[in-house]
């Protein structure tokens, strides 16, 4: 029986993720090491016998920021269609950009959708500065306690309620369009047939993906974060008992092996 999953992937390392500067709308590239690590993730986790089976992906959501889009490219999926941000309709050159495995094991018919719903938290006045600098700024302003994005949000940017609204909208879209039609249905075939195409890939950013996971598990953002994601990290969300009303965090996902 089918239990669809959502794979969440944080973009690779950037200079600001190394320095701890809050990076929302600022569009900065991956570091060379960030690119290298994402390629390694693609080799390890993407393929017919890996955690993320390309043929089973029904849809891919990606942030409008280039660092997230480049991370998706580096995972090495062999998509039927060009990425939306590519010019002239040229099909992606995965052998140059991706993980370098055979294209048959990475063939993917999922459509890529760029959505504002999964862009990074709008940091407003705190864009480009570190948490230590934020605390210093708040202390100088006479604010009574330390800053916590999950309860305070960002002045000039987004509140936890703003982020909750757009994350909830995306979760509802995933469940309605891709998971509800296939959850609990019999599997057919052994290599990712159409009836198994219920998995979804989301490539985005640290704070927004942590918020996404919290809301997936029906936790309020103001309750505080329980999840961490390293740059280039991968997480898995799914359901208990093949029941769409029982969303869960999949702590350990096994690789796929065809019988």
Describe the fold and architecture:
The structure is a single chain. With 259 residues, the protein is of the alpha/beta class. The protein has a single domain (5-87, 105-250), classed as Phosphoglycerate mutase-like (Rossmann fold). Helices cover 30% and strands 13% of the residues. The chain has helices at 15-19, 32-45, 66-74, 94-97, 131-140, 149-152, 160-179, 206-216; strands at residues 6-10, 57-62, 78-79, 107-108, 111-114, 199-204, 234-239, 247-249. Helix 4 (94-97) links the parallel strand 3 (78-79) and strand 4 (107-108). Helix 7 packs across helix 8. The longest helix has 20 residues, at 160-179. The chain is globular. This is Phosphoglycerate mutase family protein. GO terms for molecular function: sedoheptulose-bisphosphatase activity. It comes from Microdochium bolleyi.
Features:
two-stranded parallel ribbon, 8 strands, sedoheptulose-bisphosphatase activity, six-stranded mixed β-sheet, alpha/beta, Rossmann fold, His_Pase_superF_clade-1, globular, 8 helices, PGM_Phosphatase, 30% helix, Phosphoglycerate mutase family protein, 259 residues, 13% strand
């Amino acid at each position: 029986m089918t239990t669809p999953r959502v794979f969440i992937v944080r973009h690779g390392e950037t200079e600001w993720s190394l320095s701890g500067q809050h990076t929302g709308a600022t569009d900065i590239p991956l570091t060379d090491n960030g690119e290298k690590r994402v390629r390694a993730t693609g080799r390890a986790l993407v393929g017919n016998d890996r955690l993320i089976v390309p043929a089973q992906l029904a849809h891919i959501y990606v942030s409008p920021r280039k660092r997230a889009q480049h991370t998706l490219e580096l995972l090495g999926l062999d998509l039927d269609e060009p990425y939306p941000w590519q010019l002239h309709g040229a099909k992606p050159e995965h052998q140059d950009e991706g993980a370098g495995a055979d294209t048959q094991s990475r063939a993917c018919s999922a459509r890529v959708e760029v959505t504002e719903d999964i862009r990074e938290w709008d940091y407003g006045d705190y864009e480009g500065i570190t948490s230590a600098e934020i605390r210093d700024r708040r202390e100088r302003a006479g604010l009574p306690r330390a800053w916590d994005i999950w309860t305070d949000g960002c002045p000039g940017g987004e509140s936890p309620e703003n982020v909750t609204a757009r994350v909830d909208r995306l979760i509802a879209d995933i469940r309605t369009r891709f998971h509800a039609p296939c959850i609990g249905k019999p599997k057919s075939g052994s290599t990712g047939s159409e009836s198994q195409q219920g998995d979804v890939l989301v490539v985005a950013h640290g704070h927004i993906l942590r918020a996404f996971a919290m809301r997936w598990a029906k936790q309020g953002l103001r309750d505080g974060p329980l999840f961490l994601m390293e740059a280039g990290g991968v997480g898995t969300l799914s359901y208990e008992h093949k029941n769409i009303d029982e969303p869960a965090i999949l702590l350990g996902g096994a690789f796929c092996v065809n019988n």
